[in-house]
Each structure stands twice: as C-alpha cells, then as structure tokens.
Design goal:
The protein is of the alpha/beta class and 219 residues long. It has two domains: 133 residues, CBS-domain (Roll), CATH 3.10.580.10; 68 residues, Fe-S cluster assembly (FSCA) (GMP Synthetase, Chain A, domain 3), CATH 3.30.300.130. It is 34% helix and 21% strand. The strands form three sheets. It has a three-stranded mixed β-sheet with strand order 1-2-3.
C-alpha cells in the first residue's frame, strides 16, 4: 500500500525571491500571483525563509506596541523596520522532500501549525510547494479507487484473505466491511489498514450473521 507523495500533489510553478528583494516588489508579487507567501532562496536556489502577508503587515503598525520575538528570533518591531526579504522573512523555511508521503507532510504541517511546505530535491534546491489544500485533494479519490485498493492491496496483499471473505462497500469515503476473516485478530488490523488508505473518511466493520457463534461463512 502506497500513499500519494508530495511530488504527486505539489505545484512546481513557484514564485520566489532572494534576500535583497525590496518590500514593495514582494507586495506586488503576492498581489499579481494571488498568493499569500513567497519563498526566499539563496544563490543556489536553496530555501532560506518565507515572507508571508503577515510579515508585510507589521510595516503598517510599526511594532511599537509589542516587541516580542517570533519563532525565527526576530522581533515584530525588527520586521516592521525591514525593507527587504532578508529582514522580513520567517526562517528557517519548513521543507519537505518530494518523495515524502502525504501523511508525512500533513503531520509536519499540523505539528508546526503552518499552511504550506517548500519542496526540495536531494540537493536541497527548491522544486515546488505543497499546501494544505493540495493535501486535501487525496479526499477527491473515487470510492471505486478506494475499494480496489482495500480489496487488492490490503485484504489480499497484506492479510492474505480471499477477496470474497469480506464485502467492501465505499460511499463518499465511508468504508463498510462485512464478512468473515480467518482470525478474529485480523479484524482490528484490517480496520487499521483501511483507515490509512488515502481518501478514507471512516471505517466500520459489521460482523456477518452467525460469525459471533462460530458459524461458518455462507457458501
């Protein structure tokens, strides 16, 4: 069973700036491309930080009321005084490798409370960006694709069961399993694996009639 990767979902059309890019040019880029943040890269195209709309907005109030430090060690007042990307950016940039699974990317985004990850190659060079909305595209998988993966890769491939052992119904990402497995211990394992399938919203196992009394499965 393979999750979709960051490479499958990322956008490779990335607007980027360098440390010396002026404040107003960054503001124009955000508006022109209808984006909320722009990565800052060095001369080798390696991400060093990100400038977001929030970073630019510090300029509007000057930072006199609150000079506490941010997660990058810069005070809000320092960002309010900044005139280029190097002074405005939040650093370090949060990055993902292109071969990460969507689960890995989602875990990092949730843990760091961030909206996007910069995607880098093995040399650390920027090749794309993946956002929360990109990751949510896994829930656009068809019910048929989800059912096929559960039957072929989990039921048969992982658990070694016959494809007819369990009926698999999927509707709007909700998986309902019903039937008999060779071992009762396999039921929680099946449910666990199904929950891990891209696009699954919920999983329910309904034991076939008579199974609780050890009756054999119907012919």
């Amino acid at each position: 069973m393979n999750h979709q990767t960051v490479r499958d979902l990322m956008s490779d059309a990335v607007v980027r700036v360098q440390g010396g890019t002026p404040f107003k040019e960054i503001a124009h880029l955000l508006q022109e491309y209808d984006i909320t943040a722009v990565p800052v890269v060095d001369a080798q195209n390696r991400p060093v930080g990100v400038v977001s709309e929030a970073d630019l907005l510090f300029k509007m109030w000057g930072g006199q009321d609150d000079d506490t430090g941010g997660s990058d060690g810069l005070s809000r007042a320092a960002k309010a005084r900044a005139t280029d990307a190097a002074g405005l950016m939040t650093a370090p940039a949060m990055c993902a490798k292109e071969d990460w699974s969507v689960v890995d990317a989602a875990r990092l985004m949730a843990g760091r409370h961030i909206k996007r990850l910069l995607v880098v190659d093995d040399d650390g060079r920027l090749i794309g960006v993946v956002s929360r909305s990109d990751l949510l595209r896994v829930f656009l998988r068809t019910d048929q694709a989800i059912r096929t993966e559960i039957v072929e890769e989990i039921l048969v491939g992982e658990l070694g069961e016959a494809p007819s052992a369990v009926q698999v119904d999927v509707a709007h990402g909700h998986v309902v399993l019903s039937g008999h497995l060779s071992s009762p211990d396999a039921v929680p394992r099946l449910e666990e694996l199904c929950r891990d399938v891209d696009g699954v919203v919920a999983v329910e196992f309904r034991q076939a009639r008579g199974a609780e009394h050890g009756a054999p499965p119907p012919p």
